[in-house]
Amino acid sequence: DQQVKQNSPSLSVQEGRISILNCDYTNSMFDYFLWYKKYPAEGPTFLISISSIKDKNEDGRFTVFLNKSAKHLSLHIVPSQPGDSAVYFCAASEEMGYKLSFGAGTTVTVRA
Amino acid sequence: DGGITQSPKYLFRKEGQNVTLSCEQNLNHDAMYWYRQDPGQGLRLIYYSQIVNDFQKGDIAEGYSVSREKKESFPLTVTSAQKNPTAFYLCASSINPGQVLIYGYTFGSGTRLTVV
């Protein structure tokens, strides 16, 4: 039973516009959330995280929003760049530093 | 440069054979993890280890075994009992729990295992 769900398998966006990636979770015990970016045949790389005590965290072009009551988080990328074309995974954990549960990923394609 | 090295990148195995995937890190991280990725699915946790000589089963441990004799190394053995071993395997490590939200997990580049 997948506890972290990314319901949009793909997203296409024009260069310079905003990319919005969504993630839903079912486990109310999740307190820590991370986003990863993955290129083909490579391991995922960490992008940004948020804990449940916050509802927003920003790092440069990346902002993560958390709505605990809705069990929903989103990643905004502004502005989108060609190098952002990759698979993005949402991940969650009940305890800091311990095992992460991952969503199935969303493939982002940034069009020139 | 510090990082995680997984070898080999591609591995072919005959049905009924055991095979061991290597994972080495020089980041001085305490915790290490093995994940499996199948097409259209997220990463699923196979085993994890928080300290040397200790490890716990993840969500899909059946048909796999691990060892953690050294801090730097966390090899994964895919046994003949694993019914669908063809997948992309990722090893990861993490610094102390208090800093995971800052640095996340560090992943290796993966091993693609194919059973022929």
How would you describe what is shown here?
- The complex is a heterodimer of chains A (112) and B (116).
- Helix content of chain A is 0%, strand content 54%.
- With 112 residues, chain A is mainly beta.
- Chain A is built from no helices and eleven strands.
- Chain A has strands spanning 4-5, 10-14, 19-25, 32-38, 45-51, 56-59, 62-67, 72-77, 86-93, 101-102, 106-111.
- The model of chain A has no long low-confidence stretch (mean pLDDT 93).
- Chain B starts with a strand and ends with a strand.
- With 116 residues, chain B is mainly β.
- The model of chain B has no long low-confidence stretch (mean pLDDT 91).
- Chain B has one helix and eleven strands; from the N terminus they run βββββββββαββ.
- In chain B, strands 2, 4, 5, 6, 9, 10 and 11 form a seven-stranded mixed sheet that branches. A four-stranded antiparallel sheet of chain B has the order 1-3-8-7, with no helix packed on it.
Give the SSE layout:
The complex is a heterodimer of chains A (112) and B (116).
Chain A: E1 4-5, E2 10-14, E3 19-25, E4 32-38, E5 45-51, E6 56-59, E7 62-67, E8 72-77, E9 86-93, E10 101-102, E11 106-111
Parallel strand pairs in A: 2-11
Antiparallel strand pairs in A: 1-3, 3-8, 4-5, 4-9, 6-7, 7-8, 9-10, 9-11
Chain B: E1 4-7, E2 10-13, E3 19-25, E4 31-37, E5 43-51, E6 54-57, E7 64-66, E8 76-78, E9 87-94, H1 100-103, E10 106-107, E11 111-115
Parallel strand pairs in B: 2-11
Antiparallel strand pairs in B: 1-3, 3-8, 4-5, 4-9, 5-6, 7-8, 9-10, 9-11
